Amino acid sequence: MNDILDAIFQRRAVKVFEPAEISDVLREKILNAARHAPSSFNGQPYRFYWVGSAAKKAAVAKLCMGQSPAETASALVVVVADIGSMAATTRGQLEWMRASNFSQEKIRDYERTAKIGRILFMPGPFGIFAALKSAIFRLLNLWMTIGMPPLFRQDLFKWATKSTSLACQNLMIAAEALGVNTCPMEGFDGRRLSQYLGLSHRYHEIVMVIAIGKKSHDYVQPPQWRRPLQTTVTVL
Ligand SMILES: Cc1cc2nc3c(=O)[nH]c(=O)nc-3n(C[C@H](O)[C@H](O)[C@H](O)COP(=O)(O)O)c2cc1C
């Protein structure tokens, strides 16, 4: 457990990396740790684009506005919230449940929940279903305790971004624990980078790009500042 805390406290956003090879084994370990993050409904609504080849890395770094972490990294991971992955994820989990001999009752329960989720999460053409569901939920909420599900496409992206961000943090902590450094970046041209990766604006939103590599010996890390604990915490 102390190792985890060490990795959390040691991690910094590194702005200059030195050339270093990231082996396939190391890449797999880092990505595997990322996908073990918790996600809403276990939906894992994300995709990682690992950009490691020199030419593609240079192209993506340019779309990260040529920032030095991007230009000097050994690899860039473009992390995408993917709201189009839900049906495939449900199918995958069902296959896994059947292969793992879950009881018929558990499988039916899961199918039912997934179906309700699909109906709730479907915004419909021009957000018509979402508007209707939003009105119904608001009305119900007048006399019932009820959580508002993500209804409109933007809500769905917000929903997916939460789980995607947790996966990003897992990725960065795992990288640190495995001896490589990172820098999360949201300074990129989202439209051009989406185009470069062939993403669909209906289903995909780039959450961040994570630069990975070994911190340069010449890079002097500035001191780390955080707001005092009491200004960020309310104990009730
Ligand atoms: C969502 C997000 C976006 C960020 N975008 C950038 C960026 O575009 N360029 C950059 O150099 N650093 C970026 N950072 C790194 C922050 O500047 C850094 O995490 C913060 O200053 C705290 O420093 P520390 O991570 O070393 O503790 C980003 C961090 C986060 C979480």
Structure description:
Strands 1, 2, 3, 4 and 5 form a five-stranded antiparallel sheet that branches. α1 packs across α8 and α2 crosses α8. The chain is 50% helix and 14% strand. With 236 residues, it is an alpha+beta fold. The model has no long low-confidence stretch (mean pLDDT 96). The protein has helices at residues 2-10, 24-35, 54-63, 68-72, 86-99, 104-121, 128-140, 153-177, 190-197, 229-232, and strands at residues 17-18, 46-51, 75-82, 181-185, 204-215. It is globular, with a radius of gyration of 20 Å. The longest helix is centred in the last third of the chain and has 25 residues, at 153-177. It has ten helices and five strands; from the N terminus they run αβαβααβααααβαβα.
List the SSEs and their pairings:
Elements: H1 2-10, E1 17-18, H2 24-35, E2 46-51, H3 54-63, H4 68-72, E3 75-82, H5 86-99, H6 104-121, H7 128-140, H8 153-177, E4 181-185, H9 190-197, E5 204-215, H10 229-232
Antiparallel strand pairs: 1-5, 2-3, 3-5, 4-5
The protein binds flavin mononucleotide.
Task: Give keywords.
binds flavin mononucleotide; 236 residues; five-stranded antiparallel sheet; alpha+beta; 5 strands; 10 helices
